[in-house]
Structure formats: C-alpha cells, structure tokens
C-alpha cells in the first residue's frame, strides 16, 4: 500500500524487510527492526535545536495573536509570510531544491514544536508538506520536481491535497471528479472537492480524479490554483483548528496539460494512499507536541492551585492524571519515532505501523486534553485558558487522514491477510506434498511450528536482547500476547473464512491487541536504550514501560476473551432497533 521513500541520507537500511506490525499477526516479533531504538542523527540534532528555538522565539510572543486567529478563523497573510521566512514550508524538500531535507523523524519533531503552541500553525505547514506536495516528492518526474519544488520549498507556492468529496469521504475510491483525456493529450478536469486544508491559501493542488482507463480508475494531477476554472469557497466555520484554512475547491472544465499527470495514469488511488501512509508521522508528531504542552500546563496548574489547604498536585486523583498523560505521551512519541525511522530507512512496508501510531497518538492527545482541562476544572472551561481550544483542536485528529475506525479495520485486515495467505499456502502444500515433498514439508514445517507456538507458547523466539530483569518481565507480556494475537487471528479465519471481513467487532479487538503490542514494543525498545545509556530519567522510563505494559496486558486480555465471549449479537440487535425507530425508544411520559 505504500511506496518506499528513498533512504534518507545517514540512515542505514533496515535489517529485516518484514513489516513489524504485520508479522505480529503471525506470532513473530521482528526484533531486529525495533532494536536498537533509533538515535537522532547528528545533522537532525543540530538543525532541530536551531529550529525549535526559532519556533519558540517566534510563537512565544504570539499567544494572544494566535488566540485571535482562532476567533477570526483565519491566519493573516503577514503571519503566513513569517512562516515562509522561517523556512517552515521547505522542511522535507531535498536541499538540491532549496529545502531543509529533514528526516521524517526530525519533521515530526518540528510539527511537535509548532503544535505545542498552536495546532492551526502545524496544520498549515503539515498539510503543505505531509500531503499537499508529498505526492510530487514520492511520484514526481524530475521535470515536475524542477518545475515546482524550489517554489514549494520557499512557500512561494503553498500546497493542498484534494481527495475528499461530498459523496466520498472514507470511501475515497468513489470520487466523482472527472478528468477526460483530450485529443492533444491534455485533460479536462471537472468536479468539486470539500474540506480541503489550505484550500483557500494554496497555489498548488494535488488532485485526484476519475479517469476510468484500462490501467485503473483514478489518476492524480498537479493543478495550479491560477489556472482558468479553478476556484475555492469561503473558509469553513469549524469547531477546532479554526485558523487553518479549510475550503471547497472547484474545478470547472480546467485544462490540465499532460505533463501534470502525477505518477502513472490510472494509479491515482495508490498515489493517494501512499501519500496518506507516509504523512501520518507528521500528525503523530503534532499530537506528541500537544501532549508535551498539556503535561507542562497541567503540572503548573496542579502545583499552583490550592484546595483544602494544599496544592491539588498532592491529591492522588490529580497525580494519576499527570502520570497517565506522561505514559501516553512517552508511548506515542516512541512509536512515532520508530515509524519515522522505518520510513527514513527505506522500509518497503510501513503502512500498518503508521496507522497504529496515528490511532494511538490521536486518541492519547484527546485523553490528555480532556484530563488537563479536568485538572484546571472551572478555569479549564473558560476561554481565557488554553484548554478549551486544545480540546477543540485535537478532536479532528481521529477524523482526518483516515478515520480511526477505518484505520483499525485496515490494521486488522492487513494482518489477517498474511494469516490467510499462510492458510492457503498450507492447503496448497498439503495437496502438493507428494509431488513436491520438499516444498510441501517446508511450508508444513513452518506452519506446524507456528501452531505449536500458538498451542503451547513454547518455542517462541524470545526477544534476544540482554534486557534487565524489570524489562525482561515487560518483554514476556509482549511475547505471550503476540502468540495470542496469532492464535486469535487464525481462529477467526477458520471460523468465518472470507466472511471474516464482515466481522467488524472482532476486527476492532484484533486491531487493538496489535496496537498495544506494537506501541508497547516501541516503549520497551526505548526504555532499554535509555537504560543502556544511563540516561538521568532511565528509571522513570522503565517505570513507564512497566505501567504501559500492565495496562496493555489488561486490555489485551479483555480483547482476547471478547473474541470468544461477547455481547456483539445483542449490540447489533439493539442498534437495529434504535435505527429502525429513528432514535431512543423510551420516555417517562
Ligand atoms: C478539518 C478537516 C480538514 C480536512 N482536510 C482534508 C484535506 O486536506 N484533503 C482531503 O482530501 N480531505 C480532507 N478532509 C476530509 C477527511 O479526510 C474526511 O472527513 C475523512 O476521510 C472522513 O470522511 P467523512 O467525514 O466523509 O466521514 P464518513 O466517511 O462519512 O464516515 C462517517 C463515520 O462512519 C464511519 N465509517 C465509514 N465507513 C465505515 C466502514 N466501512 N466501517 C466502519 N465505519 C465506517 C467513519 O469512521 C465515521 O465515523 C478534512 C476534513 C476535515 C473535517
């Protein structure tokens, strides 16, 4: 589902070509891609230090102005110019085209810094880099890159990504915007896109349209806002990220020259999915930055506010919130960093890991904003304080760049696909065993090995790192539940066959087990690395690994049990009754 990006300079290639996330469904922990925890590169460290300082200096003075932009639902032109002047539109563009050529990890960290001040700022920059012009970086021809990247790097051109339509949200393949090929090889583009981030300020759109060719149904195009027939609607009046531009973008018989087709004709859906997959670290990095800021705000609030004669920070229920926010932030950050490293190292297959980190980070920051507001309580509800805006701003994160429901289904179905392939190989091998005994026994051998692990838990490849006793215990939980995930996936496929794709309740449980495993393994790898470096806060990091693992174990155990014993049928029936009635069924009068 994704195109490997060129290995970032300074990044080694990965030891294993297997997807860590997909292998979990087969009962394997691809340890060599998780350990050692990737360290920040010298070049990134140097650049990040300078950039984060510059961002702080610029945005620290602007707290009141940023709040006003939120009220006005607009970033003024001079503010966007200041973002250009800081180089924030060229973050991931290669130096050869005038950009800063940050790695994905460093890029995620920069978005974390802007998000710690204001999410709309991150969105303006992020929609440009993560999705607006990412297609050009991944699929553009040399000529297209020469023509556009230098101006995209300076922000002279701002980019937007135009996929969604009124009738095509999650079901993006059902878009109706059309591009008809003309005799001279150019295309005529007609249709309307909705909710396009940067729609009102962009000069450069990556647009997806139905072309219905023999090669495929959808094609991607690079479209300039200045071309005749391109227009955008007014800024949407949104709940959150209000200052970032969101508009409709309309194409009325726009002539697109043949040299502006992006990637192969008919392969636009793959282009769109590759962009979204590789863009998710930006969103995750932003969520982590938001959490860091919430932890800082909530800690200060808890220490300043006194009730019952003491700072509320001394009450267990307040401390529990601060600690949980910290566990979630560390976990999300560990996963986002590992996913960014996978992309930077040219991994062929990282889409499931990227989806997992997006789901976890987007939900973690929403929990954190809820709890930080709760600590501030009445003050938190007042617009003079930042919590209400953060709560509004973070809500979008589980809606766009793939809703979290769709991503959970994607995670489960991608994992099940690998298990299903194994089952069909087994069937074929059993049939073939007398014709080609070596091949047959080979497949059979690896299959029975897995079944044996599933049945007994014995013989699992133990994590080979020399872990300290506390982390050894942590690792044992992930070893055990990786086997459980494989066993549960196998059982689901045997029970339902191809109909397993209809079992959304079960898919959610499998996805949640897999997310806990992947995020937990990222935390384990990082805690181990900090311990080995004798980091000043290594002990706290190990505690986080222990806390996360205990919590994850309870969730995983519940999800494994829920696959067998649940109230799914009753829930389906109840939903049917309410939907049939058009609402709630009871009243006291
Ligand atoms: C502020 C904002 C900015 C945006 N920016 C951009 C942008 O820059 N470019 C762009 O192209 N798009 C953008 N979008 C669109 C965004 O990506 C879509 O909103 C998103 O994909 C979901 O589509 P939808 O809102 O139509 O929801 P729907 O697809 O209508 O989904 C509604 C609900 O049903 C659930 N659902 C749908 N299908 C299934 C299923 N098969 N199984 C289970 N549950 C399902 C969903 O998870 C969701 O909860 C933006 C949206 C917003 C709000």
Q: What features would you describe in this structure?
A:
It is built from 18 helices and 10 strands. It has 589 residues and is of the alpha+beta class. The strands form 3 sheets. The protein has a 4-stranded mixed β-sheet. Strand 4 (204-213) and strand 5 form a beta hairpin. The chain starts with 19 loop residues before the first helix and ends in an 8-residue tail after the last helix. Bound molecules: flavin-adenine dinucleotide. Residues 127, 160-164, 169-170, 195-197, 238, 246, 396, 399-400, 403, 405-406, 409 line the site of flavin-adenine dinucleotide.
Provide the fold topology.
Layout: H1 20-24, H2 42-60, H3 63-72, H4 77-85, H5 104-115, H6 119-132, H7 134-139, H8 142-154, E1 159-162, E2 178-181, E3 187-197, E4 204-213, E5 216-224, E6 230-232, E7 246-256, E8 261-262, H9 268-304, E9 306-307, E10 310-311, H10 316-344, H11 351-381, H12 387-394, H13 404-432, H14 437-456, H15 469-496, H16 504-532, H17 538-564, H18 568-581
Parallel strand pairs: 1-4
Antiparallel strand pairs: 2-3, 3-7, 4-5, 5-8, 6-7, 9-10
Helix pairs in contact: 2-5, 5-6, 5-9, 6-9, 9-10, 9-11, 10-11, 10-16, 10-17, 11-12, 11-13, 11-16, 13-14, 13-15, 13-16, 14-15, 15-16, 15-17, 16-17
This protein binds flavin-adenine dinucleotide.
What string gives the helices and strands in order?
HHHHHHHHEEEEEEEEHEEHHHHHHHHH
Rounded to an integer in angstroms, the radius of gyration calculated over CA atoms is: 25 Å
What percentage of amino acids are in beta strands? 5-15%
| Distance linking N and C termini | 54 Å
Main pleated sheet: 4 strands, mixed
Side by side, the strands of the main sheet go 1-4-5-8
| Helix amount | 55-70%
Output the structural class: alpha+beta
Shape: globular
**Number of DSSP-assigned strands:** 10
